[in-house]
Each structure stands twice: as C-alpha cells, then as structure tokens.
Predict the structure.
Amino acid sequence: MSTASAPTPATRAERKERTRQALLDAALDLSADRGLGAVSLREVARHAGIVPTAFYRHFSSMDELGVTLAADTMRVLRRLLREARRTPGPAGARQSLDVLVQQVRAHKAAFRFLARERHGGLPQVASAISVELRLLTSELAADLGRAPGLENWEFDDLEMAADLLVTAMLDFVLDLLAVDRAGSEQEADVVTRGEKQMRLILLGTAAWKPGRTTRKPR
C-alpha cells in the first residue's frame, strides 16, 4: 500500500477560478479567427467543458467576459511596465520594451485579442481597452513628471509626451505580433527599431520647452 498522501482537494474558490479562467481561454481560442462578437455563449461554455447555465455563475454576458479579458490583460501589462519604469531614462525604456516582448511571447493570443477588439469589436470591450490605455497614459505621465527637468511641466504636456510613448508601444506590439518566431532576426529588428523610436521620443521630450498655459479643469 502506498504511503503517499492523497492530494488536497481543490477548494470551491479554486474550482471557481479554474472555470472562470477556462471560459476566458475558450473565448480567446474561439475568437481568434472571427472576433468575439461572432462567438456565442454556448460555444464558449461547451469549449470550456461546462453547461451554458453555469456560464452565468462567472459572467453575466459575453460582453462582460470580453471586458474582463481585456482588463485582466491590460492590468498585468500596466503593473509590469510600472515596475520597469522604476529605472529612469533610456534604460527604463529598454526594460519596458523587454517587458512587452516577454508578455507578447507568453500571451500572444491575448494581445491579438486586444489589437483586434480595440477597433471594430464589441463596443463595451473596445471601451474597456480605451479606458485601460488612458490609465496607462496617465500613470506614465505622472512618472514623467518626477523625471529631472520635467518637474514643472503642466500635466497636459506630460500627458502629450506619455501619449506619444504609449502610441509607440502599441505600434511595437503590433510589429511583435507579426513576428513568426521568438528570438529570430526579425524580432531583433523590431526591438531595435522600437528602442530607437523610444529614444527619439525621450530625447525630444528632454529638449521640448512647453509653453506656460493655464491648466484645464478636470
């Protein structure tokens, strides 16, 4: 008789989280070629191995599932980029690019979902992605405001600079999604070009002399 102890049964919360993640993964798989708007709740439930009625224990609708999928992916990315920005200047920009490369490699389907649903997808999902991007821009603007030489910038000017950086990051992600193989020469070229773009924006930011304008009320 084996003396090995039996595995500890999963708790109800753990089982619920596994099912929730299975639904999110199923939505990613099924929407890869046709968009989330063309995927039915029944298809997602069947793909995840549950009955359709059990879907509602986790999400109220496909719209809510899509919003959750977008928000979860973006929140992880925002946290990792926030950590990378603790290193100031070009080194921090390079670390941010490294974070993007690692995340796109590990979660390519999720980033394809974001790129596809950002324009032309379900309105609620597109709106959630826009909100997360605005939060990313605002966080980056706040960090720029602590950089040497930018302490006295108006927040509107900081947001303008941050928006340029976020736009460059989005273009960088799209280029990465087109790369066939991780670690290839094609990927290295994308990273080199992305780093140059980030450096150009940072150099331009350092040289910019913003006008003294009245801060708009928020």
In short: The CA atoms of residues 101 and 176 lie 7 Å apart.
